[in-house]
Design brief:
By secondary structure, the protein is an all-alpha fold. The protein has a domain at 19-91. It has helices at residues 6-11, 19-44, 47-58, 62-72, 76-105.
Length: 107
């Protein structure tokens, strides 16, 4: 699938961020991606499906949620890929400002 790691940050133009900023950025990317994918999939779900899926999330049953998605929304990986591509484009476009802000905050 994909990895959220230093290589991704380098691809996005953020390879020169300090380590602690890299970790914050990776967490931000993950949380944003998770939220966007969840919202996109929720739009396709019936109320019953949404209740079932939220039940897995409420119980922190990631494995159950993943298995349920694979069964009920086999195209979810495509949704993840599309949302990641969109997010990567947004980050690439703002990478210079992100780098500048991290350098200014260290002074």
């Amino acid at each position: 699938m994909f990895k959220l790691d230093n290589n991704l940050l380098v691809e996005l133009g953020l390879g020169s961020l300090p380590s602690d900023e890299k970790n914050k950025m990776l967490n931000h990317i993950y949380e944003t991606l998770e939220m966007r994918v969840g919202m996109k999939l929720a739009q396709k779900m019936t109320n019953d499906q949404l209740d079932t899926f939220e039940g897995f999330i409420d119980k922190s049953d990631d494995a159950g949620a993943l298995k349920w998605l694979e069964t009920n929304f086999p195209d979810y990986k495509q949704v993840v890929a599309e949302e990641l591509d969109t997010l990567k484009t947004e980050i690439k476009n703002t990478a210079p400002q992100i780098i500048a802000a991290s350098q200014n905050s260290g002074e």
